[in-house]
Amino acid sequence: MTAASEARRVPVVAGGLKRGSLSFRRRFVDIFSKVLMTVALLLAVTPLVLVLIYVAQRGGKVISLDFFTEDIVPSPRRSGGGMAPAIVGTLIITGAASLLAIPLGVLGAVYLNEYGKKNALARFIRIMSDVMTGVPSIVMALFIYVAVVLVTGDKTGLAAALALAALMLPVVLRSSEEMLKLVPDELRQASAALGARRWKATVSVVLPAAISGITSGIMLAIARAAGETTPIVVCAGIAYSVSWDLNSQQTALPAQIFSNAAQPFDPAVARAWGAALTLTIIVLVFTLAARFVASRFAIKNR
Amino acid sequence: MTTQASSLTQKDRGRVTDRAFWLICIGAGIIVLVILAAILVSTLNQSWPAISNTGENGFFTSKVWDPNEGKFGTLAFMFGTVMVSLIAILFAVPISIGIALFLTELAHRRIKGTVVTLIDLLASVPSVVFGLWGIYFFAPTLKPVYDWLHNALGDIPVIGALFGSANANSFMTAGLVVAIMIIPIITSITREVFDTVPDSDKQAAWALGATRWEMIRGAVFPHSFGGIVGAVILGLGRAMGETVAVALVIGASIQITPNLLAPGYTIPAGIINLFGESSGDFTAALIGMGVILFLVTVVVNLLAQVIVRRAELRMRGAA
């Protein structure tokens, strides 16, 4: 009896299917690697949390209703005033950039996925738009400065919007293409079978099917664009009072943060924190809304 | 397919619309190429007077930057850019690989969603906000650490040169801030690469009695080496282009020094900080630095893509 159970237990210990039978070194390395992965995650999340807390704390002290409605005080030494011109600037510059980049990006994506597919031109455009995604915003700002500001002779909100649009375009293009790829081919075949032309099928069947994913990609692109600083600093000029005119000099929240951040005077720094909180809220709302749209209205997996 | 449809409906108007729609779409696609070409031509044209200077104060070869004397040598800016990007890569890559492994091999599905959202949020915090936080929180917090590093390592030969006198705003601070900002992009690409590792390989490793770490080392890493290299290069491209955050925390000092804790300058930070006060040749020189940055990022991005595509192809062949 004891001999039999003994015999049965031996292979289990030697075969080592239990976690406890691993050698100490193997177990240690395994656990250690898991700890390292978790630490890596914490190392990335900690700055995020710290930034958000710090911005909320410092910005929260500055923000009031006046902060959203009053003009900017030009002197860095005087306190008071608000960020209304910068908020309006951010809205209309980012808005104009979106109006330019979204139609071009979506139509370009339609070309890549519905017409070009794997031909040489489509492949080249795909590669180049990925390259364009990696072009730093400062380069895009300098390009618009040379090609638009120097030609017209004036820094304007419109010039900044053009630079932002150029930054958004490849992002919208590639994310929309990914979404069009997910639309099942049966939908296209069914429309063709019903006698619909290519453009009709694309506009009334394919695009509506992918619209939630495309929208989510667009919102992420808008969020990124709203936080871009260099195009505003280089191309938009400066403004201290609210103006809804894109053809005049403009300012925006990122540019206000940047110019006030390095000032040695407390009122200016306080304004920078207020603007930072406002901008962060705008950007985070757009980012989270994009995720919500993507998950809520996603193409149903079949 | 078009001919088939037309024989069914027999309306020329429809064919014209079809053709017009195709034209609009292909035009929208080609705009990408037009913009890239226009960037190169217009900026190169504008900055040629500065770039073509190859004499004693050559644009690419001199480290003397003195706008009042008309001397525009960009060597110090290039040096700073390389320094900051290398520091950023050094810190960001291991952390990103760790997070990607956590997401693909360790995390429960429910935790996974939350973590992905957090990393997305990290990616969406504007660069200028990181810069502001960098000046008023991160740099002052790091200063005591730098002082300690300087005291502990500063006297050792060779290594000591890297840890000279400590400044809160320095290459190191800029590199660390940039590291935080490029973690999301490297993580997302490495994660995609890890996701393509065939399940059969992993299960084979489990079946041989491997621990999780041995499975990762034996099945996941060999499959994804190319993809990781591509992700690192892509991160490098992003790091080199980071502008405002670096401009705020690097300390704005035009110098070449091995001291990681010294203030410096990078190409994009130099452009954004000096652009407002520049004119004439000075502006041309700054735009010329933009051209360098443009060409380098284009090459880096193309390289990264070639490597990632190759790796993907090889993987598909193996699977």
Give a quick precis of the structure:
The complex is a heterodimer of chains A (about 300) and B (about 325). Helix content of chain A is about 75%, strand content about 0%.
How would you characterize the overall build of this protein?
The complex is a heterodimer of chains A (302) and B (319). Chain A has 302 residues and is mainly alpha-helical. Chain A has 2 domains: 2-62; 71-296, MetI-like fold, CATH 1.10.3720. Helices cover 77% and strands 0% of the residues of chain A. Chain A is built from 12 helices and no strands. Chain A has helices at 2-15, 24-62, 65-69, 84-116, 120-133, 137-152, 157-182, 185-193, 198-226, 230-236, 253-261, 266-296. Chain B has a two-stranded antiparallel sheet with strand order 1-2. In chain B, strand 1 (65-66) and strand 2 form a beta hairpin. The longest helix of chain B is centred in the N-terminal third of the chain and has 40 residues, at 12-51. Chain B is built from 12 helices and 2 strands; from the N terminus they run ααββαααααααααα. The mean pLDDT of chain B is 90. Chain B folds into 2 domains: 2-51; 65-318, MetI-like fold (Orthogonal Bundle). Helix content of chain B is 76%, strand content 1%. Chain B is mainly α.
